[in-house]
Task: structure prediction
Amino acid sequence: MPSLILGLALIANPMTLNAAQAGPLGAGPSLEVGALGADLNLSPKRLVLDAQTRSATVYVFNQGGTSGYYSVDLVDEIMLADGRIKKVSDLASDPSAAEKIAKLKSARDLMLVTPRRIWLAPHESQTVRIRAHPPLDAAPGEYRTHLVITALPPEETGLVADQVGTPGQTKALSVRVLALYSLAIPVIYRQGQIDAQGQIKNITSSVQDGHALLEMDLERDGAASLYGDIVVRSGGRNGPVVGEVNGIGVYPELGQLRLKVPLQRKLAAGEHLLIAWRDQDLNRGGQSMGREFIAP
Result:
């Protein structure tokens, strides 16, 4: 499950004006808003390595029209009960997250990543190589970190605000606000034979803002994460699909995820639904769990 992180960079630049254009020095600055990394794309969206497959390649695509540098980092993150992904460093002082942080087996020190900084021109791609080198005595289990690609601000930052009023020049202050985007994907290493099981429970239907929804708990048990899709069909296994959510992950630090599935239409009273889990990880597309639901 990929995650998106946003940061802001404020860059003050002097903008020289001729006498006809110049306003009083007390006039407010001009404001330019831009974004770096918003059109970034990574493939694949998730990496799973083990003793047989210890290396992988991630392709980084710049689908936008701006060139720039990007940093390549490994960052530990955990999943919260509502499915949000948060950096461990941001939650270190949050007592409610302590139990989940303690359950994370970090793979950050098990991975070698190259390169650690890349340059991407518009519509250009770059490969990033990841190799696992776990110790021989590593305990069985699922180890995880996140590969984070972050846009870096340009090096040309111009003069600082104190230099705007240099004698002999008429200048106004230009403030450029850059949104610096990061894109992250999980990088997992599995040591030994581990498994995971899941169940769908506590299904309810509702209508929110005119849109029909199914809500359910996706429960996970075992040493591995779950990863797959929820498919909702009307009338049984061969019925039409009325709702679908792809790329759902439930990490080992989480025993239960509350999931909302948007439906294509409102349900009829008494309508029979089959809710199926389509595994995209351990069972390679197998249907490992499912539940029936009758609309009230």
